[in-house]
Amino acid sequence: MKKTHIAALILIVISIGVIISMTSDFSSWETFATAQEAEGKEFHIVGELARKEDILYEPEKDPNYFAFYMTDKSGEERKVVFQGAKPQDFERSEEIVLTGKMEGEEFHASKILMKCPSKYINDELEVKAVAAEN
Known about the structure:
Blueprint: H1 3-24, E1 28-30, H2 32-37, E2 43-49, E3 56-57, E4 66-72, E5 77-82, E6 95-103, E7 106-116, E8 123-128
Parallel strand pairs: 1-2, 5-7
Antiparallel strand pairs: 2-4, 2-6, 3-4, 4-5, 6-7, 7-8
């Protein structure tokens, strides 16, 4: 084989490996019910803050524990736990997009994306969880 053929084969193998690794990281947009069926798999869930329920954030006790209830697009309400600080103006959000996994009856979010109301433009804010130190 020529050196150019070998180099081309190596490039093709590397390209296939990159494509496979990228597609395995994609998560899907689902509801709490679907996430419950595939516990441990990462999902994106869109919904609204359940304003009737309490929001738990006590920075004096644990600044990296934030819990609230959210209603998904199908109308199901679940407790959401986020290992990070409560985002500013969280209560004003119109829509919330969570990225995370179900653990038992709770959804553990690794990211929170909020769509906040604005008079002229729609602002979006993304917050990532703080990695737990062992």
